[in-house]
């Protein structure tokens, strides 16, 4: 399969790979996907008192497009408020990376990862 | 060293320069371009002679009679001719066929077609090493069984089946036995005087001959009859019509002749390369061999790198031309049906890579491959949440995944 230059760039030089301590109260974790489906994404956000995403890290098991999608969103969410981050659409991700139709599910998974992390943050706060 | 390194010899091989040289003499006006079926002039006679020599060389490699070789467009056609040809000719005697789940699609799909035509097919499940036992075949035999089709060597995992024992069983029960020998011919000794095999399929392009030519061995004693699948001028004793492609046949003949001379030595050399590769990757954690190591062809290594997804692995190994166990061409990943039949779970099937080595593979290439594999498996695992969870001692099968 031919990948776009942007996918290859993120795949070869992924941004923000890593983890934060899960039990840190300022850290939100979203884990989505399933090994049997071929992709699992873990997105972690470090969130300030004022609800701004100060830092983000990811780990992904999946194809090149899945790795690129998660790498891209860690760049995008930094500096955003939770509402702004929640507004990121899978179509923005797939357009930016020029994903072919069979890889759209990777961008959907990335959007899901942001939502899951935000949900985790809200349940931690509650 | 040229990149990417070709490690996909089970998919196809380059044509040996000696073969290409020979083929070029059978195309142009200066060459031997005649139609081997032309009886009235020397162009035809010379072409026919070239075909006869090739037929002899092919028969020679497997200790058969040249009159038992029927040329086809490849092994897909040879498998179709064998399976449908037997089923149609002997269908009145019975409508049951036995094969295995790990056969090539060129065996499975003709069987599926026969099922639509009213035949019943039993698909034997191999053990976790990929082996079909004679006892299994025996247990599946019925009064109306007419054909058993079991491959000699599997194209994905390189596992060798005991066709000698299965042949004895079939002969004793008067059931025809077809063997897809595409991945074994020229690599393992095959003696059709000894083996109780009635039909055997060959392809030229897996042993340094050209694509688009193959053959079906059809035993004469005891005589096997087939319903032709291609009708026309009655070539190949009526079993396969169509003008014989002299250059292709000459190429196949030369490839088989060379294989006979060099097979033993070549196989030792390739086995040493395979061991070199395996020794270079096996010390990584969570690396698994797929298929029997004991009953395996020299040039095949099929390995699963757990917690690394197959497609990203292929991308990481872009300097190596290898095959992946998952066909990730659609949104839903489809893991290899062969690995599934061995009972491998989907994750391990997804993370498998087939390395296949051949005549032109060098030790230098293997060493480079080892370096790339080690570096990239490490990198992808650093990026894998599953690897972290494994390291934390989490049982992934117990995790509730958010399926989407
Ligand atoms: C085991 C096996 N059978 C049959 C075939 C089909 O052969 P051909 O490409 O000559 O049609 C192949 C090769 O793809 C093979 O590996």
TrEMBL record, chain A:
<feature type="domain" description="NIF system FeS cluster assembly NifU N-terminal">
    <location>
        <begin position="2"/>
        <end position="125"/>
    </location>
</feature>
<dbReference type="InterPro" id="IPR011339">
    <property type="entry name" value="ISCU"/>
</dbReference>
<dbReference type="InterPro" id="IPR002871">
    <property type="entry name" value="NIF_FeS_clus_asmbl_NifU_N"/>
</dbReference>
<protein>
    <recommendedName>
        <fullName>Iron-sulfur cluster assembly scaffold protein IscU</fullName>
    </recommendedName>
</protein>
<comment type="similarity">
    <text>Belongs to the NifU family.</text>
</comment>
<comment type="function">
    <text>A scaffold on which IscS assembles Fe-S clusters. It is likely that Fe-S cluster coordination is flexible as the role of this complex is to build and then hand off Fe-S clusters.</text>
</comment>
<dbReference type="Pfam" id="PF01592">
    <property type="entry name" value="NifU_N"/>
</dbReference>
From TrEMBL, chain B:
<feature type="binding site">
    <location>
        <begin position="75"/>
        <end position="76"/>
    </location>
    <ligand>
        <name>pyridoxal 5'-phosphate</name>
    </ligand>
</feature>
<keyword id="KW-0479">Metal-binding</keyword>
<feature type="binding site">
    <location>
        <position position="243"/>
    </location>
    <ligand>
        <name>pyridoxal 5'-phosphate</name>
    </ligand>
</feature>
<dbReference type="GO" id="GO:0031071">
    <property type="term" value="F:cysteine desulfurase activity"/>
</dbReference>
<keyword id="KW-0663">Pyridoxal phosphate</keyword>
<dbReference type="InterPro" id="IPR010240">
    <property type="entry name" value="Cys_deSase_IscS"/>
</dbReference>
<dbReference type="InterPro" id="IPR020578">
    <property type="entry name" value="Aminotrans_V_PyrdxlP_BS"/>
</dbReference>
<protein>
    <recommendedName>
        <fullName>Cysteine desulfurase IscS</fullName>
        <ecNumber>2.8.1.7</ecNumber>
    </recommendedName>
</protein>
<feature type="binding site" description="via persulfide group">
    <location>
        <position position="328"/>
    </location>
    <ligand>
        <name>[2Fe-2S] cluster</name>
    </ligand>
</feature>
<dbReference type="InterPro" id="IPR016454">
    <property type="entry name" value="Cysteine_dSase"/>
</dbReference>
<feature type="domain" description="Aminotransferase class V">
    <location>
        <begin position="5"/>
        <end position="368"/>
    </location>
</feature>
<dbReference type="InterPro" id="IPR015424">
    <property type="entry name" value="PyrdxlP-dep_Trfase"/>
</dbReference>
<feature type="active site" description="Cysteine persulfide intermediate">
    <location>
        <position position="328"/>
    </location>
</feature>
<feature type="binding site">
    <location>
        <begin position="203"/>
        <end position="205"/>
    </location>
    <ligand>
        <name>pyridoxal 5'-phosphate</name>
    </ligand>
</feature>
<keyword id="KW-0001">2Fe-2S</keyword>
<feature type="binding site">
    <location>
        <position position="183"/>
    </location>
    <ligand>
        <name>pyridoxal 5'-phosphate</name>
    </ligand>
</feature>
<feature type="modified residue" description="N6-(pyridoxal phosphate)lysine">
    <location>
        <position position="206"/>
    </location>
</feature>
<feature type="binding site">
    <location>
        <position position="155"/>
    </location>
    <ligand>
        <name>pyridoxal 5'-phosphate</name>
    </ligand>
</feature>
<keyword id="KW-0963">Cytoplasm</keyword>
<comment type="similarity">
    <text>Belongs to the class-V pyridoxal-phosphate-dependent aminotransferase family. NifS/IscS subfamily.</text>
</comment>
<keyword id="KW-0408">Iron</keyword>
<comment type="pathway">
    <text>Cofactor biosynthesis; iron-sulfur cluster biosynthesis.</text>
</comment>
